[in-house]
Write a structure and sequence with these properties.
By secondary structure, this protein is an alpha+beta fold. It is built from 2 helices and 22 strands.
Length: about 350
Amino acid sequence: MLQLFTLTVSLLPWISALLCGVTTAEEFEVLEGRSLTVPCHYEPQYASYVKYWCKGSMRDFCTSLARTDDPRAINPAVDKVSIFDDPVQLVFTVTMNDLKEQDSGWYICGVEIGGIWSRDAATYPYIKVVHGMSVVNNILTGEEGSSVSVECLYSERYRESEKKWCRSGDWSSCLGTGSEGSYEDTSVAISDDRTRAFTVTLKNLQMRDIGWYWCSSGYQKIAVQVLVTPRPTTTTSVTLPQTACQSDDLLPPPRSISKDSWNGQGFVLKSLLVCSCLMVLVVGLPLLARKMWKLHKQDPVLRQAKGMKARHNEYSRDVGDLLDTSVIYHNKDSQEVFMH
C-alpha cells in the first residue's frame, strides 16, 4: 500500500503535465542555412508563467537557449534564437536562424512551473536540419504570354555552386548562372542571391513551355512543373458614327417574323386576286359582248346565203347546172338577198 502511494505521488507531476500541457508538432525538417519558427500552444492557466526553449530530451540536462523572462531574446531578425509569448492567443513562438546540421536534435518547448511536487508543462519536438534543395512552390501556372517565377532554395554548402535550370529529360537544355551568379535571355532569367536561394523567371510563356523542369545546384536538384493556360480570345467590335439617317431614334423598330405577319401577307395576296378578277370582269365582259353582237348581226346574212345555196343545189339537180348566177343586195343595210 505504501509503495502504491509513493508511486502515485511521484507520477503527479507527469499527470499534471499531460492533462494541462503544451502542444506543438512532433518533428520539423528544415534546410541547412534556413530559419525555423516553432509555435507552442499552452493552457489558459499558464498565461502568466515563464516559457522557455532548450536543447535536450530531459529538463535537468537541457541547454537553455531562450526564456521569456530574458529581454535579450526577443528579436528574431537578429538573435540566433528568440522567443515571444502571446498570452491572448495562448501561444509562444520560438525562432531559430541560420540552422546548421549540428543543430539537429531534441528540444523542449516548456512552461516553467517549479515546486517540489510539480513538473514543468512541456512538449518535446525533434528538429532535423538537412542539406540539399527545396522550392517554395513546385507547380507554376501562368497564362500564355505572361511570366512566372519560382524560388529555388539551397543549403549553405551549395552557396558557391553554379545554379542551373534544366528541362527534365534533356540535360543539354540546362541554363547556368556561371561565375556571375546570373543568366538572362529572351525567355528565361536566373538570379542567385549567393546566400540561400536563386530565382528563375520564365518570360513570355508559350504552350510549348508546358512540362517538368529541374532546379539544380551541385548534385542536388528539385522538380518543378510548369503549366500554361491558353490566352483568352477577345472579339473587337467596330462602331461606325451614326448619321441623321442612321439614328436609332429615326429608324422603326425591327419586326420579327411571326404568324400574324404571315396572315397579313396572305390578306394582301387575297386582295390583289380579287382586284384582278374585278378588272377582268369590268374590261373583258364589254369586249366579249361587243364581239357577240357583231356575230349576231352577221348570222341572218349567213343563214340566207346558206338557204340560197341549198335552193341552188336543188335547182342544179332538177334542171341542170346554172351557168351564170349572181347575188344582188339592194343596199348594205337591207337583209334581203336576190339571186339571178
